[in-house]
Give the backbone structure.
Amino acid sequence: MSVEGVAIAVLVVVVAVVAVFAIRRELALRRIRDLAGGRPDEPPALAVRNLLDRTERSDRRARLEAEDLAYLTGLVGAGIVRLDDDLVVTSANRAADLYLEVAQGSLVGTRLPHRPPGRLEGDAEHAAIGLKDVRLDAIVRTAWRNGSAGDEVSVGGPDGRVLSVRARRAPGGGVWVVIDDMSELRRLQRIRTEFVDNLSHELRTPLTTVRLLTETLARDLEEIEVPTRVVDIVQKIDVETGHLVQMASELLDLAKIEQGQGQPLYIDDVDLGPIVTSTLDRLRLFAQRQGVRLRSEVSPDVPPVLGDAERLGQLLINLVHNAIKFSPSGGDVIVRARTESAPDTPGLVALEVEDRGVGIPAKDLPRIFERFYKVDKARVRGAGGTGLGLSIVRHIAEDHGGRVSVDSTEGVGSTFRVVLPAAPPVPSSTHP
């Protein structure tokens, strides 16, 4: 090959290499421009510079938003803790540090074990970290698994804080925890309960004595001739004193029930038939004085319920006493016990007390089970009452895992219904 041929070949190779390099460079620059989000006619260097500017602005915006969020959570009185999906604390405001009694900022970076420390087989490091209380850690783990969780936790011993803890899984991952200090509220509730307890004790003894003296005086007046006006006054004193004794007793019962200090429940299989019979026997004299007839309709196939016979008797006495009190002379009060059919929750028993009395206005129905709430019509009729009986009924029903409701029409009557879980059937023993 001649020298000219060799030179031409070399030149062709060089041109080809340069062309390939230029094409690859253009493709690379175009790729860079596309990644940087630049326009087709925009130089790649400018596109990269704009990308860096946008990134810097985004970082600055994210930093400002994080600072604003931290400032906002710092202003909130509740403790707020944020954990990521690995259950590592990413942020905690000052209130959270204060409520959990830890140094400011020390929660950030701590990690909760995904299982309780007792199941980590000697992992002492995990047992010492978290939110400084195993119950708080358990709430967070439950929320992480199930979506939400909450409870009230006492920390710091008998005189420590009472914290209301609510945890919820965040849509973007992780868990938010909100902590409220309930210590002052619980202290005031305890003071109120102690005040009511002491007041009820102090009032009940002298009031009972006054009532006994009034009953004695009423019997003595039957043997001597006195003006009718005097007899009426003594009877009114007896009635009003009875209302005060009832109020003192119900205040004491309700205060103990609400604070969990009442008599413990002795759960057993309870047959409602004898309870209904006993209740009607106890209140029959009162019903006769009011001119009210008592009837029971207990289904023979109604199963026993899981409950405390004494407390269920107290529940039924309150309901029947109310029904008699607000029934007209000649009216009926019917007590029923039957199996409640509910497809989603089998094994229920309904206890019903029906009267044909004055009924309850529709506007009062939502509040009828509140403490001290009395329907205006009851006040007008002068039937007395403390407004505590139905609240006690609600607490007893809920303590048994049941619920209470009422159907009422003003001027027609009312039906109070308590639904309780039936006792499970006793398994039959088979012998080979």
